[in-house]
TrEMBL record:
Taxonomic lineage: Eukaryota, Viridiplantae, Streptophyta, Embryophyta, Tracheophyta
EC number per UniProt: 2.7.11.1
Main location: membrane
Protein name: non-specific serine/threonine protein kinase
Wall-associated receptor kinase galacturonan-binding domain residues: 27-92
Domain Wall-associated receptor kinase C-terminal residues, every copy: 162-231
Signal peptide: 1-18
Length: 261
């Protein structure tokens, strides 16, 4: 009976004691990197917010300009704007961020689709060709830009719509090529690259929890979405109060003990 009592009291929500759930509290604080943009679920600033407040893989850092950055296929992307209502964000490769430099850095292609992000519809591409033969140089000298990695090197940059891409020997005549998505091609290569492109993210939809007064989060021990409410963590929203909403595992041992007794 003593064991049963202990179990019983461990199951009584902390609400009855008037305590606010620590996860609810931790995830109530809205943070920004300095640019004014509120960072919330599924994103979290890993040095400023508890990882339980975001979804795995949506950890952000802040750069020196006060913008959030995210690592995608081991490259830093600067986040310009997050559209929570349609789960999209506009990013650009941080290597393109310096508005004063007119050189093209060597970048890696972004590898999408992945488990976290897909490219949003209606994006276009810019193709970079590195180490091209002199015959390509002579054909289209105005399409070459200085490179950032070697003073004498130049990079061929073509928009995805450029008919020159159809000429098959461009890729043959250059040693490597990279594709960079852009939202729109206009105002010059540098501006298009700095403006970036739009991604759609894949994580739990937060609105059911948020609309019920909760803070969305994630329980890494059961690897599942959690809705942190004033009283305690719930499975999806703050309204349901039965034990059965808990996923198998969390109160498994207690449930077994109770039914045994
Ligand atoms: C997140 O917050 C919870 C509740 O306050 C705390 O127990 C946990 O240690 C925190 N985790 C990190 C990584 O700060
Ligand atoms: C990404 O940016 C962060 C913050 O600016 C920096 O600490 C980190 O070294 C960068 N990582 C890579 C792979 O460039
Ligand atoms: C996010 O977390 C991963 C794994 O811990 C880490 O490698 C990466 O650098 C973090 N991303 C950012 C933008 O800090
Ligand atoms: C999230 O769920 C709400 C309510 O079910 C719905 O109205 C909304 O469209 C969903 N958001 C997205 C981006 O799917
Ligand atoms: C998402 O919402 C923003 C702001 O309302 C809008 O500008 C943008 O076009 C939308 N994106 C998509 C892919 O629907
Ligand atoms: C760009 O150049 C301007 C004027 O020379 C300078 O004030 C600014 O700090 C530079 N910005 C960066 C990012 O280097
Ligand atoms: C994509 O472009 C087409 C044609 O311009 C347009 O009809 C459609 O609404 C666009 N889709 C999005 C998500 O912006
Ligand atoms: C260009 O070629 C040089 C010499 O072969 C090589 O060292 C360099 O890595 C190449 N650069 C690129 C971006 O492929
Ligand atoms: C492509 O190949 C043809 C035939 O080999 C050659 O005449 C032409 O100059 C090449 N074009 C470029 C841009 O190298
Ligand atoms: C919450 O409980 C109500 C009534 O029992 C039920 O209809 C609803 O589906 C539950 N919601 C979730 C997210 O479990």
């Amino acid at each position: 009976m003593i064991i049963l009592c202990i179990l019983f009291f461990s199951l009584v929500p902390k609400k009855s004691l008037g305590a606010v759930d620590p996860y609810f509290q931790a995830c109530s604080a809205r943070k920004t990197c300095g640019d004014g943009q509120a960072i919330r679920f599924p994103f979290y600033i890993q040095d400023k917010q508890n990882s339980s407040c975001g979804y795995p893989g949506f950890n952000l850092s802040c750069n020196n300009n006060g913008h959030p950055t995210i690592l995608i296929s081991n490259n830093n992307y600067t986040i310009h704007e997050i559209f929570y209502q349609n789960e999209t964000l506009r990013v650009s490769n941080s290597a393109f961020s310096n508005p004063n430099s007119s050189c093209i850095p060597f970048i890696n292609s972004i590898s999408l689709p992945g488990s976290r992000f897909d490219l949003a519809p209606n994006q276009t591409n810019i193709f970079f060709f590195y180490n091209c033969s002199s015959s390509v140089h002579e054909s289209w000298p105005s399409e070459f830009y200085p490179s950032c990695y070697g003073e004498s090197d130049t990079v061929l940059a073509l928009s995805g719509q450029d008919p020159k891409l159809q000429i098959s020997n461009v890729s043959m005549e250059c040693k490597s090529s990279v594709v960079a998505p852009v939202e729109a091609y206009g105002g010059g290569i540098g501006e298009s690259l700095r403006n970036g492109f739009v991604l759609k993210w894949k994580a739990s939809n937060c609105s059911i929890c948020e609309d019920s007064g909760g803070n969305c989060g994630f329980d890494s021990t059961i690897y599942h979405f959690k809705c942190f409410c004033l009283d305690r963590p719930h499975a999806w929203d703050c309204t349901n109060t039965t034990l059965h909403e808990y996923l198998p595992g969390q109160f498994f041992s207690q449930e077994i003990s109770l039914s045994f007794w």
